[in-house]
Amino acid sequence: MPGFYDSFDVAVVGGGHAGIEASLACARMGLKTLLITMTIDSIGRMSCNPSIGGIAKGNIVREIDALGGEMGHLIDQTMIQFRMLNKSRGPAVQAPRSQADKLAYSSLARKTVESQPNLETLQDTVVGLETEEIKEGQDGFLQVESTAGSVPRRRLTALITERGRRIGVKCAVLSTGTFLGGKIFIGEFDAPNGRLGEGGAYGLTESLQKIGFKTGRLKTGTPPRILKSSIDFSVLEEQWGDDEIVPFSFDTEKIDRPMVPCHLVYTNEETHKIIRENIGRSPLYSGKISGVGPRYCPSIEDKVMRFAERERHQLFVEPEGLATEEMYLNGFSSSLPEEVQDRFLRTLPGFANAVVSRPGYAVEYDYVEPTQLYPSLETKLVSGLFDAGQINGTSGYEEAAGQGLVAGINAGLLALAKLAQNSDSNCTTYEPLVLSRSEAYIGVLIDDLVTLGTKEPYRMFTARAEHRLQLRHDTCDERLTEKGWKVGLKTDAQLAKVQNKIAVKNEILDLLVKNKKFDENAYDAKILESAKIDFKYLHYIEKQEKRVEKMQRMENYRIPENFDYDKIAGLSTESRQKLEKIRPVTLGQASRISGIRQSDVMLLMVYLR
């Protein structure tokens, strides 16, 4: 009914991969939590590729698990193929990847959410935010009591839904995916959808803009789905997974599931000819789409036009699940008209009689410029409001889930601090969880977003992490479990298990360094292997650790609230403008802002001293 009122400690908007992690984290921290989603049936749905993990992405999934998140458990229980990528290369760039049974994954995600104590779900659409201005000295929980430009910081008080509900909250996490202002394109056809057949979310962008947030448009796409029975697999190259399966979750002892193959196929000159002849009908080239697409995951028409010298492009034919006929053509996303898609699809070997169940399409959506966030993912303009996932300009399930977990933890910590303040007026501190670049790929991801921003969908790569030797997938539990334990997402037993692993590993390393003989059979094989890798790269790791120590000293220089950069004589105009725009929390973050001169960083350091 109009004006219907309820209140929660934390509300999470969106039931995708970010929303799942955020809502579960808050509920497991003991907070009264609400997950609001446009369609409950779509919780945990894989909108695009049917896989979890990959280069750097697999590391993120294991980091999520080490912190107490859920994605690792979900994929371990629903995988239908596993591969360790880059096995022929160094350990720093190796990563796990699994094909997922999409229906089983989504079903298990929904079941996990609905069975979680302290967590309620509501099918509705958030269209607005209710905030109030913070008067000086009124709110003791501001990380940095600064303003963004000339807009005063506000406090979130409630969410307003499409059906007129007013939901009072202490904190909220926005994880809206591609639905925020979503619009899909297939040739000349377009529709106000965030996913084919599912309506977009409208009203919330305008509410954010009214408060003062800067927003933009991004674009992504997905390929057609083909019925398995219509493909001639005899002419395709078969690709099975690994026999040895490494679970994503450190809690999973063994995976015993039916595994299925993927297949490889290649485009040809006839494919490319049909695309070139119809390129003017693509909304990407006709001007209908204004949003910037992902540079590292272009559509097939982009590949053909941008790489005209290429005679063929590799595609992966991936099963979407054990209980569905649909196959996913990885690398074949398109927004050309359906009849054109049908024509060039049938030029592929084995696809002469292909039956398309769903066409490929592009989707354009709103995002919020991520430099308007603190490293905790709380917004600078509104206290208690956090953003996670594609609303921050990222792409990928794993990147979204990692942000969702961090945003959820910090929203939970802030809500707990507010609850404590209500019972004790002297309690006015709030220390968010912020992961450094040397601690986690998630830390690299968030730091890149809030410090550098993005103008295209951000995707994680190992090359983005300068400390990747320390961020291996096998060491995630060593780096992050204690942090998960401190916020209440890991048990004493889980922490003790990791502490024992670290002790045993150090024992083995000591023996290796001293060149002492020992019986390898006396040690756990995984711990032994991890210790041997550390020993092999000990010199490089030590050099990295020295750089980390130097960087950490800069991170310890916190920049005071409302710092006036005009006070620093000699600071360049460009650096001053960028520092005022980003409002870095530490000297380390200031040094990573694009265009900031090293000499200006030194001036700032001297002034802070």
Question: Would you give an account of this structure?
Answer:
This protein is α+β, with helices and mostly antiparallel strands. About 35% of the residues lie in helices and about 20% in strands. The chain contains 18 helices and 23 strands. The strands form 5 sheets. Strands 1, 2, 6, 7, 8, 9, 22 and 23 form an 8-stranded mixed sheet that branches. A 6-stranded antiparallel sheet has the order 16-17-18-19-15-20, with no helix packed on it. Strand 1 (about 5-15), helix 1 and strand 2 (about 35) form a beta-alpha-beta unit. Helix 2 runs parallel beside helix 12 (about 475-485) and helix 13 (about 490-515) crosses helix 14 (about 525-535). The longest helix is centred in the C-terminal third of the chain and has 27 residues, at about 395-425. It is globular. The N and C termini lie far apart (about 55 Å). Mean pLDDT is about 90; it is low at about 140-150.
Q: What's the short story on this structure?
A:
With 609 residues, the chain is of the alpha+beta class.
Q: Which geometry do the CA atoms define?
A: globular
Give the low-confidence spans: 142-150
| Distance between the ends | 57 Å
Give the mean pLDDT: 92
Radius of gyration: 25 Å
- Number of DSSP helices? 18
Class by helix and strand content? alpha+beta
Instruction: Report the major sheet.
Output: 8 strands, mixed
SS strand fraction? 15-25%
Number of strands: 23
The helical percent reads: 25-40%
Spell out the key features of this protein.
23 strands, alpha+beta, six-stranded antiparallel β-sheet, eight-stranded mixed β-sheet, 18 helices, globular, 609 residues
